[in-house]
Design brief:
single chain; alpha/beta; TIM Barrel; 8-stranded parallel barrel; two-stranded antiparallel sheet; globular
Length: 341
């Protein structure tokens, strides 16, 4: 968390700026009639925004998650927490997550890591159904998010390197729980999403390249630990992955809800994501600084995101999210090059 707030860990290219919505000179709607509400996984949100999981497991996280949850409940958007491994497997700082249960957030995501659902070495305890139930109960979650962070693990000196069998284990958990699979900054391809859909996963959070680079985060952590090789790997793979807008375009045709995240910093970015076909957009880094400061700052940031989204809807003549999903757009820059790969 200290690294994210104190270092430059952003991707080097802003892919969302490649998505240009076409201005509608005569909107033929009133701003006051715009309705940005949406259904996501059976829950009604006042706006198509998800605060994606980012923190937990240390003392100050209770304050941050409390500010996020209170603001999310007031503004009517969804929220996840960071990996609950520390609390569920190690009993560390469960209150840093449990504070979320105190607020009526319309949709909550529990969070476990894919590397922890298979043994990394003989005798390892893995996250099983009972652990998932505990993780969900801790925050009164509606859906389980399983995060894929193998790029991050490769840069961590202590990282988990085994991935064989993860797909099957995700399927086993998806048979018991509503599961959303999310990346952590490197995007999801259509081929992987198809395989996950076949395992009964219900939704995706693309978390594509262009936002916080967790290879960069781990680069700085490795430097602090004197892990020279891993620090170099983090720098080499700083911008590795699939751009967030491209990942959205690849996954939308599969017919499952898609949360577009990875560099979403404004309500205009949210609108761009919805125009590409996403059900909602996710943001983390954009609200982290506000949540680290206080509740009022957090609520103001979320309300500003919603207002900017509504401005974009007005300027494209979109009264509803469904209308915005039909709005015309132009793709430029590096994102356009990805379309022709």
């Amino acid at each position: 968390m200290k690294v994210v707030l104190g270092k430059n860990v952003e991707g080097r290219y802003r892919y969302w700026d490649d998505i240009q919505l076409v201005h509608r000179t005569l909107p033929e709607i009133d701003f006051d009639e715009i309705d940005p509400s949406v259904d996501l996984l059976g829950h009604r949100l006042k706006a198509p925004i998800v605060i994606t999981g980012m923190t937990g497991g240390f003392p100050d996280a209770a304050k941050i998650n409390g500010n996020l949850a209170k603001a999310a409940a007031e503004v009517g958007v969804a929220m996840g927490v960071g990996s609950e491994r520390a609390a569920i497997l190690k009993g560390q700082y469960p209150e840093s997550y449990a504070t979320v249960a105190e607020y009526p957030v319309p949709l909550k995501f529990a969070n476990i890591g894919a590397p922890q659902i298979i043994p990394q070495k003989p005798g390892d305890r893995v996250v099983g159904p009972d652990d998932v139930r505990a993780a969900m109960a801790l925050i009164h979650a509606d859906v389980l998010a399983i995060h894929l962070n193998f790029l991050q693990e490769m840069v961590q000196p202590e990282g988990d390197r085994r991935a064989r069998g993860v797909l099957e284990r995700i399927g086993a958990l998806a048979a018991e729980f509503p599961v959303l699979v999310k990346e952590t900054g490197a995007g999801i391809s259509q081929a992987v999403a198809r395989a996950l859909r076949d395992q009964k996963v219900r939704a995706f959070d693309v978390s594509g390249t262009g936002g916080t680079s967790f290879a960069a985060v781990e680069h700085y952590r490795a430097l602090e630990q004197g892990a020279v090789r891993e620090a170099r790997v983090g720098k080499t793979f700083w911008d590795w992955g699939i751009p967030a807008p491209i990942s959205v375009l690849e996954l939308v045709p599969l017919g499952l809800p898609v949360v577009a995240s990875g560099g979403v910093r404004s309500g205009l970015d949210v609108a761009r994501a919805i125009a590409l076909g996403a059900t909602a957009a996710g943001t983390a880094g954009g609200v982290l600084k506000a949540a680290s400061t206080g509740y009022e700052e957090t609520r103001t940031e979320l309300e500003t995101l919603v207002h900017e989204l509504k401005v974009a809807m007005f300027l494209t003549g979109a009264r509803t999210v469904a209308d915005l999903q039909k709005a015309p757009y132009v793709i430029t820059g590096e994102s356009r090059s990805w379309l022709h790969r």
